[in-house]
Amino acid sequence: MNDYILAKEVPEIELILGGHDHVVEKTRINDTYVIKSGTDFRQLGVLQLNFPTAAEIIEIKNESHPKINPKDLLHGKFTLQIEILDVTKKYEPCPELQEHIDETLKDFSKLMDRVIFLPLRQLRTNWVFIEKQKRMLAISTKILTRDSRKLGLRKRTQ
User: Fold this and answer.
1) pLDDT tens-place string over residues 18-53
2) Domain parsing of the chain, residue ranges
3) How many CB atoms are closer than 10 A to CB 34?
4) How much is the pLDDT for 62?
5) What is the DSSP secondary structure assignment for residue 101, as one 8-state letter?
6) What's 65's DSSP letter?
7) Which value, in Å, is the radius of gyration of the alpha carbons in the chain?
8) Alpha-carbon distance 44 to 33, whole Å?
9) Dihedral of the alpha carbons of 135, 139, 145, 148, in degrees to the nearest 10
10) Are 57 and 73 contacting, i.e. CB atoms less than 8 angstroms apart?
């Protein structure tokens, strides 16, 4: 959803590669595409950007280009072809990449025994402490501001 808001509110953005939504989408908002290519490496987004020459851009805008429709010219300077592939067993793994993944996972598995977060109860306790500290700081700031006004102290102007 934030990707769509960003595309609507900042028209200068040409392409948004969204993630973490766990969906496959290709949506055009004005001249901005929002691309989301799935979850857990089940899909793969293949994007091809084409930058026509200045002469081709004129042809496209005049609707005389043999292949490119004017509505496909994004931001007046490029076209985009999008293909979402389902990752299946029909694609053979790359041996070099598989070796790299295996090495990374081996190193990663050593780290799995490390504690990297606090239990939820402790996090809640820490959160309450932080909130109390923030409130105390806000109260202290108000008191200091009030007292400084009583003493005739003012902000320095530059």
Assistant:
1) 877 788 888 889 888 898 877 777 888 888 889 999
2) 2-89, 115-151
3) 19
4) 93
5) H
6) -
7) 27
8) 16
9) -140
10) yes
Closest CA to 56 of 47, 44, 64, 45: 64
16, amino acid identity: I
Contacts for 126 with CB less than 8 Å, ≥ 6 apart: 118
Q: Which two tokens stand for residue 94?
A: 């790359």
Q: What are phi and psi of 155, to 5 degrees?
A: -65, 145
β-partners of residue 45 are 84
CB-based contact 100:107 (threshold 8 Å) = no
pTM higher than the cut 0.85: no
Whose tokens are 């392409």? That residue is 15
Residue in the structure block whose two tokens are 């808001």: 5
C-alpha angle with apex 87: 24 to 109, nearest 5 degrees?
A: 100
